[in-house]
Design a protein that fits this description.
With 1994 residues, the protein is an alpha/beta fold. 26% of the residues lie in helices and 16% in strands. Strands 42, 43, 46, 47, 48, 49, 50, 51, 52, 53, 54 and 55 form a twelve-stranded mixed β-sheet that branches. An eight-stranded mixed β-sheet has the order 40-58-57-59-60-62-61-56. A six-stranded parallel β-sheet has the order 18-17-19-20-38-21, with helices on both faces. It is globular. The relative contact order is 0.06.
């Protein structure tokens, strides 16, 4: 069985280790050296040999001993009488054979596995048994625990602790000693048929012989693995090398296990030494054992089975609370909420403690808490539940606090993620109970004496140990978990190497830590810290006994120096139990206060203040020792002798009275003493917080792009096109200052003026308050009103801006209405807001973590993160300011070249700690606030100089506070306008803040400083209260004229010297001015350590610096940090003079260069000038040559001089002199820090900034005294000649405020908070980033990775979305229960950015540009061009009257036809000759490069009758666009339609794609059968809601931008709209317009132009008209009554207008006006024309803003060219076809031929069409490309033609297009006589072709009876014959006369027809031709080029 242990502790080994430990202790400077026993039992000393064993490893294998001796005979224990002894059966007679149990249903207990046992008696079969899988090896033969645990699968008997007993029970009948390695052979599993079969063999042979016996204590014992499905053990790896520096780094500030190569110089008051190189053999150096991992040892020789119980793991502990608990980010006892919301018993009240303890206590066990526990020990112990039930507390249990947070941490760390619960034959296991306890002890040991344990640290220790032990398994499990969409893997990552852990041991096989080993290992660990941690475990039989023993020793005073007591119970046969009792006074106080919720803590503070408990503390602090009482000293300094002295007994009432009179006129001040508003102005003062910065504009655009992305998505959750205006409401926290601040930003941003089109101009700031609402009870009415307004105004987009969104995330169902919480959930998450399609929510916050959970309502795609201003050191936005935030503050603490901006005050901390021990019952906030205000009062008394003996007051304050007060009082003196600084005191308690305000105001009044600075109480629920004199100053600075103006925001206090006491549980978004110089956070709570809580407190110091200033943490010797200014204690010269007068000289000042010092109290890193002080010890300290018998000098005897501060006190008899008083510092650590920094600075090369001055130059002090610190109108002149700066000698010193705006404020923090914030975690991020992000969320699992330093904001968001869940009282906790598959609100955005960075200005600008965008979306670019060629003079009849409704055909025939084209889009074409027209002198001088500039457009708002493109989605259009509930979307059918055209000589096959909803417009031979044609109405039909004419819209390349949505234009009228598309575009048009009818042109027309589309439309319509007539004739209907008109509409027609001839408007405007009309109105009016059938073509005018101005344009009807929107009579125009080959000017050609055929063309001038500018697609887009490549090339027009049969670059462009383009661009060369010769045009027969703007074309028709112009006497300069047909004869051509040299151009389809035409027309008689004058288009032969011949007239 291998139950024996060999070897004992060797004496030589012990002596060696002892000697090494003593020697290392002497060499080390750490407090506690590494204990001897930890080196003996916790080291992995001996390396493994090559065979996997240690050198002394002589264990037996499964076959017995390795020696040659015969095996020892084994006699099995005889079976009990009467039991079964049959092979294959157990002693209970149950069959165990695999063949018998293969098909049976077997229940296996959790944690056990079915295995097959080999029996010698049954070689062909296996026996089935159940074995705890912790005692089985994995697939590599590793990780099997020693011993055995199993039960019988036959009878079910359990509890077999030895394999021998189990073998006897199953009747193995062995002749040798039973060994599990020999007989447990195979894993069993069920196959696909459910049959139990033999599986893989159990691998017992692994590297290192893990299952062997340990022979020596010196060999290493790795950690254990206990296995269970729900809970198992996994030991932590031990650090085999523990250097002091690694421990210092790991324990810095919070005890977090860190990986750091750079040790901190000071951690928790323990000096850490640098790392010492260690050898591999002797791994350990002096130091404590690591808390991050350890290596257990078997301990003294014991039987391995005696103390082991397989149930000793904490799996049974899960029965108490199976919920997975996520610990909060706080100190240990803070209340924890489990995943289901149950609050654990962390309350300090009696009833809750009693209930919780009773629930978990075994019956009969109780512990009596002794009486007078708090009085005797001065503390209230905190008991942390650990493993096992805690006994019931009786007696004085109200003085004991119980918390279950540690127990929750244990459970959470043992609840494996689902992916790790089952992994192969050896599942990954969590840490065992014993390992958790031991790691807890190690964590407590390494905590500093003043540190408070943090649950995050312990949890990370557990996780790091677990990851180290399962590194390989985790890596294998990670592979399938990588999400494909996140871009970065957030699974469990392999941790970095732990400090001191050799890599060859990191993955070594581990062995279990047994319960019997736990107590003495824990005691060994605790022995390293003396009495700091005590372990009670060896002789403790139960937790009740251990607690009773603890209480007894605690009352006896034996635990006076003990901070933690760990009780461990490891009774045999029972589970391991434990609990931790905190007995350290500092720790108990912090943990007890942390058990309060924030509100409960504030109530406790209020109770202590109101009950008078704090009076003793206040009186104690008022005492100044030998200097007397503070109140008496103040009374002596009070100028008003009649003022009553404030006694301590009546202090409250007295202070209240004095505060009321703070701003009232004082009798003691004469008018001449009072300070009037200064007349001087400061040229450096400027307020810039109203400016919009470039980065804010960029963020606003990002917000706009996200809104557009929502609108562009296919979900149709936001239809921006349907909104015509924006309205908004900004929700802010219930802070009056935040409310007024937002109103001020809104009023000054100009947003309300931009919305002035729908809102009246906001003339006052009060009117802007309508758009901002505080989230209090009044918000309900405002939001409800907005919801109702949004419901009634569907065309308005409402934006709900939720500013400071992290403030209230409480669930409405969990909150009381009186508290004001839960309003956000109640209002913004309501169903009315969620379902409103026109309400968009924008959350704005600096801390978005509470909104980024697994149940969040905000899509990650809707998050907008504030961008970085720099990228690779490149300024992206070129701003004048630079943001300085929390990260920069932290960076300043890590830079060694300058004083950090964020510091802690050691003097304050020591005083507060001593008072906390003196007053144990008072809340720490009361104590710390009292001490802080005491320091400020004392500093005011010392600096003012009004107190006699003020030089002794420095002992009662701190250097930091003294420097703050000095900077406050001296700043205003340096500016002619008395600008100063703001000092922020953050006091969360309202009661404490009010007391502090009263106390400081009283001291200020009694010192006569009421006009020097203001004291402001910042109460969130109250407006600002500022004194009248200071208001007058601010009004003067801001140039405000209103008499009743008062500041309402902190921003308006810019440059006001003041102390702002900011109260409230947390900041609520208040912005602070740039004059903020010090941010004093020394009394903020350290109990609630969440990331949001910490960062929002630090965010108060966020700042915008001037961009030209240098970074404060990168300053050099001559930087801002080294220059001194007049704000500092200006006694340097005095001190130098005093030293010289005393005949003494300072060796430092006389022999070393004088260097400037930092600011007072090391607080102000500001750049200053003119300092000659040499302060090597502290900021603003000077060197005193007289030794001072101070404690500081006593502690540091090596210093040659005392470090002193000099203050001026006014002398009543000698006002020109000032008496210097010195004092010594009492902060040795602070002195050391400043000394080391200044020494470092002195060693740098800084000649330009350091000056050496002879003693005589510094001997004369300035005569100005510091006593009268009130602002003066005329500052005193300085008589000193020692100034090193010209500014210092000037009458007016430079403005201290102006210098301060380029420097961020300094921040003072509590020591505990400072240590936490400045520490880094393992990833390099600040320690606070790994805390719980918000108290309303919980971690989803302890098995989470740390945040990475390289994560972007987006990746951090994804991290929190994966690893945090909302608590039950979070408003998002119910988001998953609403039954929606998508939990993201579609119209909800999140804007996050650092605090004070300018988010308000960004979202206000976003509202403005969103409004402008909506207006722009409602506007389109309309072509607004005047008609061209207007100077036509006609002699004849004008149509009258001008307001006629319809044209009269008889009158229209009398009107002359206007051949001139007036459409501006044709201003680059050839003029059509008209006899009555005389072109202007500058006409036709158009350059091609000016074409794009000539087309003028105008932005016009869309009317309600506009046509829209595919981006328009409104509710009314859904059915029109295809969202018909009766039909499925895209449900349409393809129909072929074939007809024969005589001109083409072949059949034409077209295709119709007809949606199901439009089939009623067509006729079929049967339902769903062959398409026969379109149904046409009768001419006599009259329907008020129907359009009779089918609308055809040819289009190409505009499937998205074409205006095909005519629903609104038709005003609901039924109409037939057909899109005519090319075959290759059919699919894309069908996709975008599924409910539109598509007419697909034949493939042969894919490369054709607009002429082909119109040709086929017209011929199809005429053929359909004939079919419809035939169909009606068959039905005995009228034939000629079928409606013959169609509409040809351009795809860019957007709106239509009608002229309004109202008489009043006509008279007022001196002409008609136009208004928008629907297309329905236009078409019904035109279709209603009585004589419409007489017209061949009708059209309407193109809109222009100036068309109606001229007299010629007031004709209601005219005859001329019509374009873009045509009403065509296909019956009358049946013989006139569109030219199918034309690409350009096809409509001009068609109109001329139509007119020449005698048909009437009428233009309705009272209607106009607006055309939208669409830059994409269209038939005017032509691409000329070569045949060789598809890439467009720059081919000139001269290359469009070539000589026939020549080798020329052929073009892949239609021949007709090449010909048209060639003639357009080169006709001035082809027809030289025609260039700019209007009197001699080119004669064009039967067609119009554009010959360019310089050539005039005269159109004539060769048809008989054609209507042509009179050409008698007209000489033509050229002749153009294009495809001349039979109507062109020689006789016809002889009617015309030509100039000599006129040019002839004959165009034909081929060369033979070209020659035939020349011959047939006898052209050679009058025209001369040459062979070189024949050309063809540059087409290949297969592309059918066109040929033309030119000649000259003879």
């Amino acid at each position: 069985m291998g139950n024996s242990y060999a070897g004992q502790l060797r004496t030589t080994r012990f002596e060696e280790v002892l000697h090494n430990s003593i020697e290392a202790s002497l060499r080390s400077n750490i407090v506690v050296p590494r204990p001897v026993f930890s080196q003996l039992y916790l080291e992995a000393e001996q390396p493994l040999a090559h065979n996997g064993r240690t050198e002394n490893d002589d264990e037996d294998d499964e076959d017995g001993s390795e020696s040659n001796s015969p095996p020892i005979p084994y006699q099995m224990k005889p079976p009990p009488e009467g039991c079964c002894t049959t092979d294959g059966y157990c002693q209970a007679g149950r069959d165990l054979r695999l063949s018998s149990l293969a098909s049976d249903s077997l229940d296996v207990l959790p944690g056990f596995m079915l295995i097959g046992l080999k029996s010698p008696a049954l070689p062909e079969n296996l026996l089935v048994g159940a074995v705890d899988h912790r005692f089985l090896p994995d697939e590599r033969g590793h990780n099997a625990l020693l011993g055995f645990s199993g039960y019988c699968m036959g009878c079910g008997e359990k509890g077999f602790r030895y394999f021998t007993d189990f073998a006897n029970h199953i009747n193995l009948k062995l002749s040798t000693q039973p060994k599990k390695q020999k007989h447990l052979k195979f894993h069993l599993y069920r196959n696909n048929q459910g049959v139990l079969v033999k599986g893989a063999p159990i691998c017992w042979r692994g590297h290192g012989k893990i299952d062997g016996r340990i022979r020596q204590l010196s060999s290493s014992l790795p950690e254990a693995h206990a296995t269970s499905d729900e809970q198992s053990t996994s030991g932590a790896l031990m650090h085999s090398s523990h250097t002091p520096s690694s421990y210092a780094a790991a324990s810095h500030a919070n005890g977090a296990p860190q990986i750091s190569d750079t040790p901190h110089s000071l951690t928790n008051g323990i000096h850490a030494a640098s790392s010492v190189a260690q050898t591999v053999i002797n791994h350990s150096g002096p130091g404590r054992p690591s808390a991050t991992g350890l290596q257990t040892n078997a301990g003294p020789p014991k039987k391995r089975h005696k103390g082991w119980s397989p149930e000793s793991s904490s799996s049974s502990g899960l029965l108490e609370n199976t919920g997975k608990v996520a610990p909060s980010s706080s100190v240990l006892p803070s209340s924890t909420v489990s995943a289901n919301g149950a609050r654990l018993d962390a309350s300090a009240t009696t009833s809750s403690s009693q209930r919780s303890l009773t629930t978990h206590s075994p019956s009969g066990l109780s512990v009596a808490v002794p009486d007078q526990l708090l009085h005797t020990c001065g503390l209230q112990p905190v008991i942390f539940k650990g493993h096992g039930p805690l006994p019931q507390l009786t007696g004085n249990f109200s003085e004991v606090l119980v918390s279950s947070l540690l127990q929750s941490c244990y459970l959470s760390s043992q609840t494996l993620p689902r992916v790790y619960q089952h992994y192969g034959p050896s599942p990954i296991q969590p840490l065992s109970t014993e390992m958790q306890i031991l790691l807890t002890v190690y964590y407590l040991v390494q905590l500093g004496p003043e540190q408070v344990p943090l649950i995050e640290d312990l949890e990370q220790i557990f996780m790091r140990s677990w990851r180290e032990s399962h590194l390989s398994e985790i890596r294998q499990n990670q592979q399938p978990q990588i999400p494909a969409t996140q871009g970065r893997h957030y699974g469990i990552e392999a941790p970095p190497a732990l400090p001191g852990l050799p890599q060859h041991l990191g993955l070594a096989p581990q062995q279990p830590l047994t319960p019997s080993q736990l107590p003495w290992l824990a005691q060994l660990a605790a022995s390293s810290c003396g009495e700091g941690v005590v372990v009670l475990g060896e002789q403790v039989g139960s937790l009740a006994q251990g607690l009773q023993q603890m209480f007894r020793k605690l009352m006896e005073g034996r635990f006076e120096n003990t901070n933690y007591i760990v009780v461990i119970v490891t009774a045999s046969g029972h589970e391991t139990q434990s609990c931790v009792v905190v007995t350290g006074k500092h720790q108990c106080r912090a943990l007890a206060e942390n058990m309060f919720s924030p509100n409960e803590g504030l109530r406790e503070i209020n109770h202590q203040l109101s009950s008078g408990d704090a009076q003793e503390l206040i009186q104690f602090c008022s005492s100044l020792g030998q200097e007397g009482d503070m109140d008496s000293l103040l009374d002596s300094a009070t100028l008003d002798s009649n003022e009553p002295s404030p006694l301590s007994s009546s202090q409250e009432s007295t202070e209240e009275k004095t505060v009321k009179n703070t701003h009232s006129p004082k009798d003691s001040h004469s008018p001449k003493d009072r300070v009037l508003p200064p007349k001087e102005t400061c040229s450096e003062y400027a307020v810039e917080w109203r400016d919009i910065r470039p980065i804010q504009l960029a963020v606003a655009r990002k917000l706009l792009s996200h809104v557009c992305a929502i609108a562009d998505s296919s979900t149709q959750n936001l239809d921006l096109v349907s909104f015509d205006r924006v309205n908004f409401l900004i929700l802010v926290p219930p802070s009056e200052v935040t409310f007024q601040q937002t109103v001020l930003h809104l009023w000054s941003s100009g947003v309300l003026r931009e919305l002035g089109s729908v809102e009246q101009d906001c003339v006052s700031q009060r009117e802007a308050e309508r758009y901002v609402v505080k989230m209090d009870q009044s918000a309900q009415v405002r939001v409800d009103s907005l919801i109702q307004e949004a419901h009634s105004n569907s065309y308005t987009l409402y934006i709900l801006v939720h500013d400071h969104a992290h403030w209230d995330v409480s669930s409405a169902s969990y909150c009381n209405t009186d508290t004001g919480l839960g309003l956000v959930d109640q209002l913004l998450n309501s169903r009315q807001v969620r379902d409103a399609p026109n309400i968009l929510i924008l959350h704005v916050t600096s801390f978005p973590f509470a909104l980024q959970t697994q149940f969040t309502r905000i899509s990650p795609y809707n998050e907008i993160h504030w961008p970085s201003s720099f990228s690779n050191d490149v300024d992206l936005y070129h701003e004048r300011t630079r943001y300085f935030g929390v990260s920069e503050l932290l960076e300043s603490t890590r830079s060694g070249s300058s004083l950090p901006l964020m510091r802690c005050d050691s003097s304050f901390e020591s005083m507060a700690s001593s008072l906390e021990e003196r007053f144990p019952k008072l809340h720490s906030a009361v104590i710390r606030t009292t001490v802080l205000i005491h320091h400020y009062c004392t500093a005011l008394m010392a600096v003012s100089g009004r107190i006699g003996g003020s030089h002794n007051l420095h002992k009662h304050t701190s250097v930091e506070t003294l420097g703050i007060v000095q900077a406050l009082l001296s700043a205003a003196q340096q500016c002619p306008a008395h600008h100063g600084h703001m000092i922020l005191l953050r006091i969360p308690s309202l009661a404490l803040a009010a007391w502090a305000h009263r106390r400081l105001s009283r001291v200020r009044r009694q010192l006569g400083l009421e006009e020097s600075f203001e004291i402001i109480l910042g109460n969130p629920s109250q407006p600002l209260n500022v004194g009248h004199s200071f208001i007058d100053q601010i009004k003067l600075w801001l140039k405000i004229q209103e008499s009743d103006w008062v500041p309402r925001t902190y921003l308006e206090l810019e440059a006001l010297p003041c102390i702002l006491i900011l109260s409230g549980a947390e900041p609520q978004g208040e912005s602070l001015p740039r004059s903020l110089k010090y941010c004093d956070l020394r009394v903020v709570s350290c109990s609630y350590l969440q990331r949001t809580t910490l960062e929002q407190e630090l965010g108060l110091a966020a700042y915008l610096l001037k961009a030209e200033s240098r970074s404060p943490h990168n300053t050099g010797p001559g930087s801002d940090l080294l220059e001194s200014d007049a704000e500092k204690l200006s006694s340097t010269d005095n001190e130098e003079e005093e030293g010289q007068e005393n005949g003494k000289s300072s060796p430092v000042s006389s022999n070393q260069p004088l260097q400037s010092s930092p600011d007072v109290g090391a607080l102000d890193p500001s750049p200053t000038q003119s300092s000659t002080s040499t302060s090597p010890d502290a900021p603003k300290c000077t060197v005193d040559t007289t030794p001072s018998p101070s404690r500081a000098q006593t502690q540091f005897p090596s210093q040659s001089s005392s470090q002193s501060f000099i203050y001026h006190q006014p002398s009543l008899h000698h006002p020109s002199q000032s008496i210097a008083h010195t004092y010594s510092l009492s902060q040795p650590i602070f002195q050391q820090q400043i000394l080391s920094q200044n020494q470092l600075l002195a060693q740098t090369n800084s000649q330009p900034y350091f000056q050496t001055l002879p003693p005589h130059q510094v001997s004369h002090p300035p005569t100005q005294s510091l006593a009268p610190v009130r602002p003066r109108r005329h500052p005193s002149k300085s008589t000193s000649s020692s100034s090193s700066s010209p500014r210092a000698s000037s009458p007016h010193l430079s403005c201290s405020w102006a210098r301060g705006v380029s420097r961020p404020p300094s921040v003072l923090l509590p020591r505990s908070l400072y240590d936490i914030i400045t520490a880094n975690d393992g990833s390099g991020l600040p320690r606070c980033t790994s805390f719980l992000p918000h108290m309303s969320v919980a971690w989803a699992s302890s098995f989470r990775p740390l945040l990475s330093k390289m994560m972007t904001c987006t990746e951090q968001s994804l991290y929190y979305r994966q690893w945090t869940v909302p608590r039950p009282y979070h408003m998002d906790s119910s988001n998953r229960t609403e039954g929606r598959s998508d939990n993201f609100h579609p119209r909800r955005l999140l804007l996050s950015g650092p605090p004070q960075v300018g988010k308000t200005g960004a979202y206000l600008h976003f509202l403005g540009i969103l409004s402008r965008m909506l207006i722009r979306l409602m506007e389109v670019d309309i072509y607004n061009e005047e008609d061209i060629n207007l100077n036509v003079q006609f002699d004849g009849v004008h149509y009258k009257p001008p307001n006629a409704l319809w044209p009269d055909p008889d009158v229209m025939k009398t009107l002359p036809f206007d051949y001139i084209v007036h459409d501006p889009k044709y201003d680059d074409i050839s003029l059509v000759y008209c006899p009555g027209y005389r072109p202007a002198s500058d006409a036709n001088t158009v350059h091609q490069e000016e074409v794009c500039l000539r087309r003028r457009t105008t932005r016009i708002k869309l009317s309600k009758y506009a046509a829209f493109n595919t981006y328009h989605h409104c509710e009314q259009c859904h059915l029109y666009l295809g969202f018909n509930p009766r039909y499925q979307i895209y449900e349409s059918t393809l129909h072929a339609f074939t007809f024969t055209h005589l001109l083409l000589g072949e059949e034409i096959q077209l295709y119709f794609i007809i949606p199901k909803s439009k089939e009623h417009y067509f006729s079929f031979n049967q339902p769903g059968g062959q398409l026969e044609g379109m149904r046409l109405p009768l001419a006599a039909d009259r329907s008020p809601n129907c359009i009779k004419s089918p609308i055809f819209t040819p289009t190409t390349g505009r499937h998205e931008h074409g205006l095909f949505n005519l629903y609104h234009a038709m005003d609901g009228a039924a109409h037939l709209h057909i899109l005519v598309v090319k075959e290759y575009e059919m699919a894309v048009y069908k996709k975008y317009w599924p409910n539109h009818i598509l007419l697909v042109l034949p493939p042969v027309f894919n490369g054709a132009g607009i002429g082909a589309a119109h040709f086929l439309i017209k011929e199809l319509s005429y053929h359909n008209l004939e079919l419809e007539r035939s169909r009606r004739q068959e039905g005995s209907g009228p034939i000629s009554d079928v409606w013959p008109f169609i509409i040809l509409a351009d795809d860019s027609c957007v709106m239509w207008n009608v002229v309004d001839f109202d008489a009043r408007k006509y008279m007022l405007t001196h002409g008609p006006v136009e208004h928008a009309a629907s297309l329905k109105q236009v078409l019904q009016h035109m279709e209603g024309c009585p004589d419409l059938a007489h017209y061949g073509l009708c059209g309407i005018r193109k809109w222009s803003s100036r068309v109606l101005a001229g007299p010629n344009q007031r004709k209601p009807f005219s005859r001329g060219h019509v374009h873009d929107f045509l009403l065509l009579n296909v019956d009358r125009s049946q013989n006139i076809q569109y030219d199918q080959n034309r690409f350009t000017c096809h409509d001009i050609d068609f109109t001329l031929r139509l007119h020449s055929a005698g048909l009437l063309v009428c233009r309705f001038n009272n209607f106009s069409v607006m055309k939208k500018q669409i830059a994409i697609g269209g038939y005017r887009t032509f691409i000329i490309k070569t045949k060789m490549t598809d890439v467009p090339t720059s081919v000139g027009p001269s290359q469009y033609v070539c000589a026939p049969d020549s080798k020329h670059l052929f073009l892949a462009t239609p021949a007709q297009l090449l010909l048209e383009k060639y003639l357009q661009h080169t006709s001035h060369k082809l027809f030289p006589l025609s260039t700019k010769n209007y009197e001699h045009p080119v004669l064009s027969v039967d067609c119009y072709i554009n010959l360019g703007p310089e050539v005039t074309v005269c159109f004539v028709s060769s048809r008989p009876h054609a209507v042509n112009i009179c050409t008698t006497g007209l000489l033509f300069s050229g002749l153009l014959l294009c495809f001349a047909d039979a109507f062109v004869t020689p006789s016809f051509l002889k009617k015309f006369s030509f100039l000599k040299g006129a040019t002839l151009c004959v165009i034909s389809a081929d060369r033979s027809s070209l020659r035939q035409t020349v011959g047939r027309l006898e052209l050679e008689e009058e025209w001369r031709f040459r062979l070189s004058d024949e050309f063809q288009t540059a087409n290949a032969k297969e592309d059918r080029p066109l040929f033309f011949l030119t000649g000259k007239h003879i």
